[in-house]
Description:
By secondary structure, this protein is of the alpha/beta class.
Amino acid sequence: MSEPPTIDVAVVGAGIAGLSAASELAAAGCRVVVLEKSRGVGGRMATRRLGEAVFDHGAQFFTVRGRAFGVLVDESRQAGAVDRWCDGFVRIVPAASGADEVLPAGDGHTRWRGVRGMTDLPKHLAAGLPERVEVRTGVRVSGIGAASDRVRITLDDGERFESRAAVVTTPVPQALDLFASGGLSEGVIDPESHRLLSTVDYDPCFALMAVLDRPSLVPPPGGIQFESAGPARGAIAWLADNRQKGISPLPALTIHAGAAFSRRHFDDDPATVTALLLEAARPWIDGQLPEAVLETSLQRWKFAQPTSILKDPLVAATSAPPIVCCGDAFAGPKVEGAASSGMAAARWVVRVLAAE
Ligand SMILES: Cc1cc2nc3c(=O)[nH]c(=O)nc-3n(C[C@H](O)[C@H](O)[C@H](O)COP(=O)(O)OP(=O)(O)OC[C@H]3O[C@@H](n4cnc5c(N)ncnc54)[C@H](O)[C@@H]3O)c2cc1C
């Protein structure tokens, strides 16, 4: 019987960081397996349907600053996966008088979106991976360890396998839990790396999706950024009209709660949180709430966005075997930061493996 082919790199997580890493690793000729606990790829670049209505309920848009990410976005645009949304959004900021000031949309910096939703970009990346990369969805990693210079991955269902290296893109507190379960304790991980990784924290975020029976009152181009208290009384950080955005055939609002609100209400009953967020969004919903809102769904992101960013694009937990953490908490935040960090982690792994 022939031996199964050796896996060079196990990538944990199929969000934008994991898929960017997998592309880079594949381009360097590595045999890769990407392990994702959800049914689909994309992670926090999440698009969801409620009936006919379509919602982006994690990341809402992305911007492009660096060259490498720009190349990826250009290519994805030509392939019909992403498109320009706008040059900025209406902002509501507290004025010195205590009243709210509404600042007009547009600062000249392009905001991008997936053509049918934010998941289009990660889906496009996954579809372009060559055969030597296997993307396995619906598999949860339960432990990451090391023995005899090999990475040992354990899955929830008890399956185990080995690889020469691992790129770990889960939110950092989850990565540390996976290391601890796999036997990579504080003493085994490089102490400075462990210290750095232990400092990473994330804000939670409630995302309320609401299907409306008529167009919303959100001004063009379909998004409002709230900079603090105001008519939304500090509850809301972001409000988007997914129909104006061009991804939903029906009027569909995504309402993101602010970090302080999300922390305060994290364990509250979903019906209570839904009522508070709808009330805060009332000025942008035409008509009485019970009639105008046809359906809602509340998502609770525990690790929405990092509260601070580490200065390096990756942190190596161990070098022999190479096990590296990356994602949006490393060097740059958000979608672009996560993609760039994934690529940097992949390049580091390729260098270490080549030196073996
Ligand atoms: C509400 C919200 C709004 C946001 N708005 C914006 C925005 O407008 N613009 C912007 O640029 N960014 C925004 N972001 C941030 C952006 O979504 C992230 O920075 C980016 O998507 C992070 O990508 P990632 O690959 O690092 O992590 P993730 O997307 O979190 O990917 C990690 C993956 O690991 C998987 N995973 C976790 N544990 C396991 C396990 N044990 N086994 C297997 N798989 C596992 C997860 O399911 C996930 O798919 C927002 C995020 C949220 C939540």
